[in-house]
Amino acid sequence: MDRPMTNGNRTSPAAKRDFSPDGKYFPTPNGLPNPTQDQILQIQKAAFGTLPNGPPPAKVSEEGLTNLRLLALNELFEVAFFTELIHNVTNKVHGYDLGHGHNYVLDSLKAIQSQEELHALNVNGALKKFNAGPIEPCRYSFPVTDFQSAINLAATFTDLVLGTLQDVNFIFAQNGDAGLVRGVSSVLGNEAEQEGFYHVLQSKRPTTLPFLTTSVRDFAFTALQSFFIPGSCPNIGTIKLKTFAPLNVLTTGIKPVTQSLKFSFSLSKSGGSDWESFRIVYINQQNLPVVKKLQNVDVKGDVVTFHADFPFDEFTMNGLTIAAVVKGDGPFPTAAAVADVAIFGPGLIEV
Predict the structure, then answer these.
(1) Superkingdom, according to UniProt (predicted)?
(2) Chain centre distance of CA 229
């Protein structure tokens, strides 16, 4: 897959190429994924806090291990992303010179990066303690060429993380892994603080929604892979989650109004052309998923484009909306029920 976690706009990541032409980010200058104890002490100092020093639970379920593996995959991705962003801001690469406030933003990003490094060390450390083996880094490609596009992307993937951590905690609770909920909840709070910072950098309100949009692990697992260079993840196969075919959101600059949005997907991955049985489903906030028909379906070669109503006003669909194409009318009681039958997704819409 080669698609961004944004509204379908992919641009050549020119600024990135000077930093990591081959997409290799690890080991980092401070030793991740396997820093020395002295390096860990330096990371903690830069993160303004420490790794948890209490013992992990005595056991973990198989679903709990899947949770930890997905979290590790995401944390390593975030470390790579912020390593590149800080390099570009530090060196004032074209498009990354922020003028007034440059040093404040850079200091804040360095703290975020160090905190993500501790997140990665913590979750991979838990996998080691459970004799499950740590998740190893991939090689990455980020579709950003300036500071604003980088922050827009950071805000989008952080929104998805905030939704996914809800699912992770729910699955821990379902499977008797209560001992892991508190630590993940503390990370959820840290990610929410980050998201408020990104909103301010985008001249948005720090807080978006009273109840943040939920997600499920399969959507996050699929979205993450859009940033991985194919074949570069040594042990991603240990993460037993589904990968959906891409759903591209073609409408850009989406405003907070009811409107028709344009999407596309691959005909060869659709399993047929019975468009009347296909539906697009929107997941927003903690509400029941919204189901809409595909309209104006057009096929050119292997690309299927269509429009669908986006009922913003009826449901006040601010913040992140996760879109997926399914076969069947629903209704769907939960986001997990959508993922169970999804063919294409996730399409990530930010309003």
Answers:
(1) Eukaryota
(2) 16
Q: How far is CA 269 from CA 52, 128, 291, 293, in A?
A: 44, 37, 21, 19
In tens, the pLDDT along 3-29 reads 335 443 333 334 444 677 789 999 999
Q: From edge to edge, which strands make up the β-sheet containing 259-266?
A: 248-249, 259-266, 303-310, 295-300
**Is-contact 124 72, C-beta < 8 A?**
yes
Structural domains of the chain in order of their starting residue, each with its CATH number: 14-238 (1.20.1260), 248-350 (2.60.40)
Q: How far apart are CA 231 and CA 95, in angstroms?
A: 31
Query: How high is the pLDDT of residue 18?
Result: 62
For residue 211, the SS3 value is coil
Q: Is the dihedral of CA 77, 151, 118, 182 positive or negative?
A: negative
- DSSP 3-state assignment of 69? helix
Q: Taking the CB of residue 19, how many other CB atoms lie within 10 A of it?
A: 17
Q: How far is CA 65 from the centre of its chain?
A: 19
| CA–CA distance, 274 with 270 (Å, rounded to integer) | 9
